[in-house]
Design a protein that fits this description.
The chain has about 375 residues and is α/β, with parallel strands linked by helices. It has 2 domains: about 220 residues, Type I PLP-dependent aspartate aminotransferase-like (Major domain) (Aspartate Aminotransferase, domain 2, 3-Layer(aba) Sandwich), CATH 3.40.640.10; about 120 residues, Alpha-Beta Complex (Aspartate Aminotransferase, domain 1). The chain has 11 helices and 14 strands. Strand 6 and strand 7 form a beta hairpin. The protein binds pyridoxal-5'-phosphate.
């Protein structure tokens, strides 16, 4: 049964567009008049500002978050015949990027606190052919990087952070994405720093890795018609770069709004049989996606649907169950926490411009179901 209540969308980008429209159109006009459409000034400016914001030496923009991960893997020498450690519970693209470079993902279960990789299970999963660990800062909660970095250093393998959902998250004073050998970001529109189209970026403090990435994203081009390696077309679109630069300049306000909406959700959902987003001590959550967990997840989803309230299940199928990975022979029993998360999580509407009245209505529906 559906009601005639006003729809509450899971996400709405139209407010963001209205806010930047004038300035962005001016910049697009300027770009158009320059005729400098590929790897132009907008790209350099955006990369410099992004690197400054993150406190990292190099930022190399690319076409998507998926490319950011696969090109970072390539730049760090990971390829065919290698394996890479990755959490079993994340967006498909994290593993897909590993497969795209010809390597094999090794899935590891997650911890039930923040849904990130269970660091106690990584060492036993490392094989002779393992070249990297790829922790994901899922939903915006920083993964526990210190023990991962220590283990990686002991085994002489790389740590590549999937920070696609975690722009602005911090571990102590450091931004995630600036801590491992490379950090990978996505500018998919719903991200904390989102484009109005696709985009991605790799951060690194290693000049050689940055140089490799710069070549890889542009056909290995080192001079006119000279190609020093096999790369691809993975340049960030200049039109998106002009927008991202504008948004980056005022991103702290948006991050503040995310924390304020989180505070209201926490206040209104307190005391219910529901686990609210959690993070490791000493870290700052980016609150990209507001995910809660409940044994009554399906009842909550049904009630939200009845009341015209958008929601998402991120992610209903752990990676080891995805068809392209069946051949790896994993069993559900190896991933109890990943399986439990897939059954219990639900992501609620969440974006910086979200009206307070929407949060009130969503929480009232949830309280009705499980209060
Ligand atoms: C955790 C994670 N990794 C990788 C990606 C891939 O990013 P893109 O969609 O920009 O390719 C995403 C995007 O949603 C993501 O959430």
């Amino acid at each position: 049964m559906k009601t005639s209540e006003e729809t509450i969308p899971y996400f709405d980008l139209t407010g963001q567009f209205a806010m930047v429209r004038e300035e962005w159109f001016r910049e697009i006009n300027r770009l158009g008049r320059s005729g400098n459409f590929i790897l132009g000034d907008a790209i350099n400016q955006f990369e410099t500002c992004f690197a400054d914001y993150l406190g990292v030496k190099h930022a190399v923009s690319v076409s998507s978050g998926t490319d950011a991960i696969s090109l970072a893997l390539k730049a760090l020498g990971v390829g065919s015949g290698d394996s890479v450690i990755v959490p079993d519970f994340t967006f498909f693209a994290t593993a897909e990027a590993i497969s795209l470079v010809g390597a094999t993902p090794i899935f590891v279960d997650i911890n039930p606190i923040d849904f990130n990789i269970d660091v106690s299970k990584i060492e036993s999963a490392i094989r002779a052919d393992t070249k990297a660990i790829l922790p994901v800062h899922l939903f915006g909660a920083p993964a526990n990087l210190d023990p991962i970095l220590e283990l990686a250093s002991k085994k002489s393998i790389a740590v590549i952070e999937d920070a696609a959902q975690a722009f602005s998250a911090r571990i102590g004073g450091s931004c995630v994405g600036s801590i491992g050998h490379a950090g990978c970001f996505s500018f998919y529109p719903t991200k904390v720093l989102g484009a109005f189209g696709d985009g991605g970026l790799v951060t690194t403090n290693d000049s050689q890795v940055a140089d490799q990435l710069t070549l890889l994203r542009n056909h290995g081009l080192t001079g006119p018609n000279i190609h020093s390696l096999i790369g691809c077309t993975s340049r960030l679109n200049c039109v998106q770069a002009t927008l991202l630069l504008i948004k980056l300049n005022s991103i702290d306000e948006k991050i503040k709004s995310r924390h304020e909406i989180t505070r209201i959700y926490f206040e209104q959902l307190a005391g219910l049989d529901l686990v609210l987003p959690r993070q490791q001590r000493g870290t700052t959550h980016a609150y990209n996606i507001f995910t809660v967990r409940s044994r009554l997840r399906d009842n909550i989803a049904q009630a939200l649907k009845i009341h015209n309230i958008g929601h998402q299940i991120y992610y209903p199928m752990p990676l080891h169950k995805q068809p392209p990975y069946h051949h790896l022979g994993y069993t559900d029993a190896e991933f109890p926490e990943s399986m439990r998360a897939a059954d219990e999580v639900i992501s609620l509407p969440f974006y910086p411009e979200m009206p307070r009245s929407h949060v009130d209505r969503i929480c009232a529906v949830i309280r009705d179901v499980i209060g």
